[in-house]
Prior knowledge:
By secondary structure, the chain is an all-alpha fold. The chain has 7 helices and no strands. It has helices at residues 13-21, 23-47, 54-79, 91-96, 105-133, 137-164, 167-187. Helix 2 (23-47) packs antiparallel against helix 3 (54-79), helix 3 (54-79) runs antiparallel to helix 6 (137-164) and helix 5 packs antiparallel against helix 6. The radius of gyration is 16 Å and the shape is globular.
Amino acid sequence: MKYSIDVKVPSSQEWLDAVMGDFDEFLKDHADCERKASAMATSLIAKYPDREKIIPDMIETAIEELEHFQQVFEIMQQRGVPLNKEMKEDPYIKQLMPLTHGGTAESRFLSRMLLGSIVECRGCERFRMVSEALEDVELKKFYKMLWTSEAKHGNIFVELALHYFDEKTVYGRLNEMMEIEGEVVRNLSIRPALH
């Protein structure tokens, strides 16, 4: 069953052109994003050890994201592309993080879970675009695997939120956050990066 919702603003052809025009730079950013996604899942466990329902799924998500990092790193090594010396600040995440601040502890927990879903759903949409644009058979297969994995993760965060909050609260907040995410995407500078 699908719990997540689709992105409200589609990614542009200009973004895809930037990625395909400098794929090595995209890989460097992609590797950073996988490391950050693994750390984010782990940080939710650290922050909410009492929310036992989320722990098994967050462990699994953290491991999967780390495996994705390993796979991207292997592709980079084959192409002679080094990792970034420092992980750069992600302007997309930076603009979305305030959505998880303020309000009650309960509302912050809900917003953090839903932000997890939103980021995964955007990753799913963008990896799908990359997969469809690639000509290299192995890379195409890799990015197809990634977008199906991101779709699964996008679902998990909403499903877990529904364990703690009623449907109206979850989808009301998710739609609100997705509207803001759409505006953020519309105004992001175009660069060969996942976000």
